[in-house]
Amino acid sequence: MKRSLTGILILLLVIATLAGCGPDQEEFQKDFIEILEQPASEENIGEASEFLDKHLPKMNREYASQMIHRYEHYILCFDQEAIDYNDWAEKYKRYIEPALLEFYLIMAEEQNSPMTEETVLNLRWDELAERAYEIEQFIRENREYTLFKEDLSWIYGKYINALVMGTNGTPIFDYKTQTFSEEAKNAYAVFINRYPDSTVAWALKEYFTYLGSIEYRMDYNDKTSSKLFFDTCDWLVSEAGKRVFE
Question: What's the pTM?
Answer without folding.
Answer: 0.86
